Amino acid sequence: MKNLAENWDVVVVGAGIAGCMTAGTTALKGNGNVSVLLMDRNPPTEAGKKTVLGWVCGDAVGEHHIKYIHERIGTTYGKPEMENRVTAVYVYSPDMKVRVPFEGPGYVLDRPKFAKRLLDDALKDGVEFRGNVQATELIQDNGTIVGLHGQTVGPGVNQPFEIRSKLIIDTSGMSTKLRRNLPIPSHIEKEINKDDVEPTARLNAKLRDGVEVEPFHCDIYLDAEKAPGGYLWLFPKSEDKVNIGLGIQQKRSPKPLSA
Ligand SMILES: Cc1cc2nc3c(=O)[nH]c(=O)nc-3n(C[C@H](O)[C@H](O)[C@H](O)COP(=O)(O)OP(=O)(O)OC[C@H]3O[C@@H](n4cnc5c(N)ncnc54)[C@H](O)[C@@H]3O)c2cc1C
Asked: Is residue 201 part of a domain?
């Protein structure tokens, strides 16, 4: 159990989808016998927000994933985090002549509300959350990870801290410093292959008066010119609101882009 010397059973770094689910499930299954700390560099209202620019995500999720969670930990999602229900994803060929339907129910999420729901659930399960704290490096002792160093972030603060834990779970996303600087030999991939990186842009937009979309399916366009190595997407949130975005494979982008 937790004591004043900041010793935890489990510390989860990064309160995105993976972090909230991992921390919450660990606390739930631990039945009050496992202390779990979840930390994020963002404030509590923005835990899970990937970049300072916004909630970067296409927001689409298949219903089978939601059922998977329900069957294992009993959670049921609904409004407001499940913003729109769809029945299929249509994938269009580069020349737009072929449309491949992937039938099956799914949802377009309200991403900030979904993030709030995940964090609220983790807190109810007994997780302690700390926002505005950034993990900077792992501490090893005799070839075993035993803790981490970090610092508080945000305007005017930069306090270093140290936390000890029996288990540290890194759910801090794709560009994690912790993984890159892992201080023990491991099979964990430290660097992400640049060919696997897709710079993306996305916008949640209200359509002009008189312009509407069919709100029951998500569309993906494999347009090799506009989105080389990636695709364009249009996911409806309602008849007049969409999540629209573009991802390009870095090595095929017309100009060099940073991830
Ligand atoms: C443009 C785009 C569109 C996408 N569309 C979809 C889609 O439609 N459907 C779908 O299922 N998936 C989609 N994805 C993928 C999906 O967003 C990711 O798979 C998912 O968000 C990964 O969750 P995560 O919890 O692993 O990491 P993240 O969401 O990246 O969360 C990581 C968290 O860790 C925190 N963090 C990072 N470093 C530190 C640190 N050092 N210390 C403390 N905290 C830290 C961050 O603040 C963040 O809150 C999309 C991704 C992108 C980029």
From this structure: yes
